[in-house]
Amino acid sequence: MATSEIGSGTIGMDNGEVRSGLEGAFSKYLTGTDGSRLEQRVNSSQWKPIDFWKVNEPVDGEDVYTTLDLRIQDIAHSALEKQLINFEAKHGTVIVMEVETGKVRALVNLRQTEPGVYEDAYNYALKDNIEPGSTFKTISLLAAMDDGFIDENTTVDVGNGVWTYAKQRISDGHGGGTYDISDVLAKSSNVGTAKLITKYYAEKPQIFQII
Fold first, then answer.
1. 156 three-state secondary structure
2. Phi then psi for 78, rounded to 5 degrees?
3. What Å distances lie between residue 136 and 26, 69, 193, CA to CA?
4. Are the C-beta atoms of 96 and 104 separated by less than 8 Å?
5. DSSP string over 89-136
6. What is the C-alpha separation between 132 and 138, in angstroms, rounded?
7. Could you give the C-alpha distances from 88 to 80, 122, 147, 168, in angstroms and in order?
8. How many CA atoms lie within 13 A of 103 on its CB side?
9. With a threshold of 0.85, does the pTM exceed it?
10. pLDDT digits over 110-149, tens only?
11. DSSP β-bridge partners for residue 107
């Protein structure tokens, strides 16, 4: 893997026809102004400037600074590529976020172009809008744990695996009864997660923050 390929999809491009990534998003800021000057041809391979007072100096575009860390980006790229090859997957995404600040340190998207070959050519992380699914259950429970509402001893009665809240039917695809917090996570319980979050945040939804 060439170093120039790391983050190529995130950096993106703007060739006048196709815009993508950071380059495409901030093209109007990154694009400078071309300069110009008159030159006289001396021979087949040499030119000399003339009329120096008519020179228009080029103007550089502005810079865009990101929070991406090249070292972490490299590690994430290699780790994702290894697993994609191992499982013969079509594509995959890795986002590394610094939890304390929320800064994104790596953003890698790889898709298969031929067996065993992957390239960073499509930003699945930002372009494809899909529901967070079971991932959001873990994040929600972590938020409640961080706020001190639940811990490893927390239990929740999921009943028969079906619960209606605010006229919305919530269900699990398995079992029922009383779950401890590890069961809620292991069985990806919709009812267990919803009951816990509702219990502690329904009256004060503004304090339910996932950062």
1. strand
2. -65, -40
3. 31, 26, 10
4. yes
5. -SEEEEEEEETTTTEEEEEEEEEEEETTEEE----HHHH-----TTHH
6. 11
7. 12, 18, 40, 39
8. 9
9. no
10. 999 999 899 988 888 887 766 667 888 999 999 999 999 9
11. 95
Q: State whether residue 42 is helix, strand or coil.
A: coil
- 25 contacts 64 by C-beta, under 8 angstroms: no
Dihedral sign for Cα 73, 14, 130, 110, please. Answer: negative
Which residue bears the tokens 């400037």?
49
- Tokens 């809008």, residue located: 129
Task: Summarize pLDDT for 76-98 with one digit per residue, the tens.
Answer: 999 999 999 999 999 999 999 99
CA geometry: angle at 114 spanning 109 and 119, to 5°? Answer: 25
